[in-house]
Amino acid sequence: MQYTSSLRRTATALAAAAAATALMTGCGPTGDTGAGAATPSSPPAASGPAPATATGGTGGSGATGGSSTGGAGGSSTGGATGGGGAKPTPSAPGGGGKVKACTTEDVEVSPAHLADVRPTGTGTGAVVVSVTSRAHCTLQGFPQVAGAGNGSPDKNLPLATTNSGTAAPVVLTPGARAWTKLTFVNVQGEADGYCVSGSTPVVFPSLVIRVPGAGAHQIGMDDGQFAECDNKVTVTPFSLTKPS
C-alpha cells in the first residue's frame, strides 16, 4: 500500500512538471497569448520631443539640444525667428515722434525790441520778444504779460491781455527762436503824455513774460522803458516767423 501511494505521488509530481513545461513553452516569443502581454511595447514617437521643422522655427527647437543641429538654434537667424520679428528702432528727434514741451530751463527770453509796425503815439506802442531754445522742445500758445512795478517782479501789475491769431505747436531745436509781438494802448502827446481814455500813462522799467509751460521771465527793453495806457496789451502766439 505504501508503494502504491508513492507511485501516485510520483505520477502527480510528473503531471505538475509537465504542466509547468507546457506553460513555459507558451511564454516564448512565438506564443500568441504571452507575447502580447509580456513583451514591452516601444515608446510612441509622439511621446518624445518633436524634431525641429521648417515651420516650427529653428531658434525654438529644444529636441536637438546639444547636437550640431541644435547649435543652429543659437544662431542669429534662429534667434530672430523665435523672437517674433525685428526689434523696433527708436524714433530720432523730429522724425515723427512726440517732442517734449519746453520747460523753464529750456528757454531764454530776450529783451524786448521796438516793433517796426506799432500804433501812433509817443509811448512804446509795440515790441517783439524772442524765446531762444536750449533744447529740442515744443512751444505753443500765447504769453501772459505783467508790468513789474519799479522793476520788481513782486510788485507785478497784470495787464488785461487780448490774444490775436491762432496758436500752433512750434518745434524748436537748440539755438532756434520763437517770436511774439506785444501791442499796447499807446501814450499820446509830449512830455508825460496822456491817454485817449483819460487814464494816466504808466511806465514800467521791465515786464514779466509768462511763456506757456516754460515759466515767468523778467525782461527789460533793449532801449528805453515800457510806456503804455490802460494796462492793456494784445499779444500774438509764439511763432517761428518774426513779426514786423
TrEMBL record:
Among Pfam families, the record links this protein to: DUF4232
Do you know which InterPro entries this protein is assigned to? DUF4232
- What's the name of the protein? DUF4232 domain-containing protein
May I ask which residue range the UniProt record assigns to the signal sequence?
A: 1-24
| Top-level taxon | Bacteria
Q: Where is the DUF4232 domain?
A: 102-238
Annotated Low complexity bias: 35-55
The UniProt record lists the keyword S-adenosyl-L-methionine: no
Cite the residue spans of the region called Disordered.
33-101
Organism, scientific name = Streptomyces racemochromogenes
Q: Does the keyword Membrane apply?
A: no
Alphabetical UniProt keywords? Signal
